Amino acid sequence: MEKDISSGQRERAGRRPGRWVLITALAIAFAVAVGSYTAAAAGTAGAIGYTVLVILPAALSAFVAWVGSMGRNWPRSTFALVPVWLSVGVAVIGAVAFREGIVCILMLLPLWLLFGMLGVWPVYQYRKQSNGVDSSIFRANALLLLPLLSLVVDQHVAPPTARYHVVREISVAAPPEAVWPQLLAIPDIDAAEGVWTVSQSLLGLPRPTGAKLTGRGEGAVRDAEWQGGVRFREIVTRWQPDRALQWRFSFPDASIRLRTDEHIDPHGRHLWIESGGYDLIPTQDGGTKIRLWTRYRATTPLNAYAAMWGEMILGDIQNNVLAIVAGRIAREKNHE
Fold first, then answer.
1. Rounded to an integer, what distance in angstroms lies between the CA atom of residue 45 and that of residue 61?
2. In whole angstroms, what is the distance from residue 55 CA to residue 65 CA?
3. Are 301 and 50 contacting, i.e. CB atoms less than 8 angstroms apart?
4. Whole-model pTM over 0.85
5. Are 147 and 70 in contact (CB under 8 A)?
6. pLDDT band at 98 (very low <50, low <70, confident <90, very high)
């Protein structure tokens, strides 16, 4: 019995150093992530670069997996959990320490999981082939230099720019001449108006509360107000009654960025919302198809990925606005 207890104690004692090595590796990884993010945000390229989106999750996941599995027979599932631990930890740090918004965190998580898995994969493959640790083949500490080198690259390599066009439509049982006045100004929007959307109902992005029009024709200004004190302007560039209304966006203050997320700057280095408008298309049954569109450009290392979120968020906003307009047209028709 004494021999068995002694054996169990030795086994537990042998596990503790390995556990603390893993915890230490995670702590170092989080420190490097915070330092790299802070340096990137202070640089001319901004925080949304190759370092934060690609290099950090791959390099730090490989570092933690290498150090944590030294002298231990990790199963494949444990290797796969490393990017999960890092991603969750980074999300918590971002939300608490840097006050990152929910949209930014949700956009970052899939990238950290994906590139983290890519970083862990070669470590896992090497561990399958060798039980020993040969530092001349793979030095884990060298992985921590990759984000620093990547930061230098980010400052000198500009990410690509791409333009996108988001469109949503709705059909109403009213002719264009009845629809047109409802588009010019939308005052006193009640919280019950509109539809449920992922972006605004689930993620908590603000919803419109009203829009007023000053002037007529090209050069007229639509002042829009949303929840949380969000304000912006739509300066009319095309005015065709009963046919089309088009505008360019103007953001006179930082209310959108302050209310949503530091990195959602509609006229910033990574995102530039250019223009929008309504098209009124008569239908054969005497109704109207209302088409609402928005054009913007993105400048990020992963524009196609960013555009997926742009399609969802802007599409949700457009669907909600169209539902408000359609609801008001229907109520007005019922009161006739």
1. 24
2. 15
3. yes
4. yes
5. no
6. confident
| CA–CA dist 46, 290 (Å, integer) | 38
Q: How far is CA 53 from CA 109, 147, 185, 289, 308, in A?
A: 10, 11, 41, 40, 16
d(CA 55, CA 145): 10
**Closest by CA position to 141, among listed 32, 19, 50:** 32
CA atoms within 13 A on the CB side of 265: 13
Is residue 289 exposed (0-12), middle (13-18) or buried (19+ Cβ within 10 Å)? middle
> C-alpha distances in angstroms, 138 versus 31, 67, 70, 73, 141?
22, 11, 12, 18, 9
Which residues, 6 or more positions from 329, have their beta carbon under 8 angstroms from its beta carbon? 172, 174, 178, 179, 182
Stretch 120-143: mean pLDDT, rounded?
A: 73
Residue with tokens 């629809």: 179
- Residue 221 dihedral angles phi and psi, to the nearest 5°: -125, 130
For residue 75, the one-letter residue type is: P
Domains and their CATH numbers in the chain: 2-156 (no CATH), 161-335 (3.30.530.20)
- Tell how strand 221-226 and strand 208-214 pair up: antiparallel
| Burial group, residue 190, by CB count within 10 angstroms (0-12, 13-18, 19+) | exposed
Structure tokens at 259: 């209310």
Residue appearing with tokens 């109704």: 287
The residue among 262 and 88 whose pLDDT is bigger is: 88
Q: How far is the C-alpha of 22 from the C-alpha of 126, rounded, in Å?
A: 18
Distance (Å, rounded) from C-alpha 182 to C-alpha 242?
11
Angle 305-28-157 from CA coordinates, rounded to 5°: 40
Q: Which candidate, 51, 41, 119, 45, places its Cα nearest to that of 80?
A: 119
Residue 238 CA, chain-centre distance (Å), reads 32
**Least confident piece of the model among 71-80, 166-175, 299-308:** 71-80
CA–CA separation, 239 and 277 (whole Å): 10
Q: Which residues pair with 208 in a beta bridge?
A: 226
Contact 189, 324 (CB under 8 A): yes
Decide which of 336 and 243 is more confident.
243
